[in-house]
Specification:
Elements (H helix, E strand, L loop, with lengths): L1 H19 L5 H15 L5 H29 L4 H17 L3 H19 L2 H40 L4
Helix pairs in contact: 1-2, 1-6, 2-3, 2-6, 3-6, 4-5, 5-6
Length: 163
């Protein structure tokens, strides 16, 4: 059905938007959409497409936590700092919808590092490192999402839409 192919494509786009606007688990949605397509597709080769998409997903998830996390540890930003910043980001989301999450996260990093270092310059330097790592992580996730979308499009062009 052409309609279900369009629905899967729309779900893929929602997933990509969810990567940039962290309200929904974007990368998981893209791989889930590929799985739904493979399940509905009559050609068994669709499962190969899903397998490749799943491998891209797993690699993306692993890299998004390993690479930026290592950089933060090298610069002295602790896991405790990030956890407290995420908690303040969640509070900020409810106080000031959407924008508050970002503001709360940044403020959380700064406050925790300020209490730890007792120096605003050092706290701001740690905050910039953490923000860079978050953007790096988001970039990795977006590349993985685009890789999954590309894999699905190649599968769609090769195997055809769900009939």
């Amino acid at each position: 059905m052409i309609g279900s192919t369009w629905a899967i494509g729309l779900l893929m786009l929602v997933g990509l938007v969810g990567i940039v606007v962290p309200v929904v688990p974007g990368l998981a949605i893209t791989v889930l959409a590929t799985g739904i397509w493979a399940f509905d597709h009559p050609d068994p080769k669709a499962w190969i497409v899903f397998g490749v998409a799943l491998a891209i997903y797993l690699a993306g998830v692993a890299l998004q936590y390993l690479l930026p996390g290592r950089r933060m540890r090298e610069r002295g930003v602790t896991t405790r700092t990030m956890l407290l910043a995420v908690l303040l980001g969640i509070v900020g989301f409810f106080v000031i919808p959407v924008v508050g999450a970002i503001l709360g996260f940044v403020l959380g990093i700064f406050l925790v590092e300020l209490s730890r270092a007792r120096d605003s310059r050092a706290a701001w330097a740690s905050t910039k490192v953490a923000l860079g790592a978050v953007l790096h992580s988001m970039g990795i996730e977006l590349l993985a999402g685009i890789g999954i979308l590309t894999t699905w499009i190649i599968g769609l062009l090769t195997l055809g839409p769900v009939s």
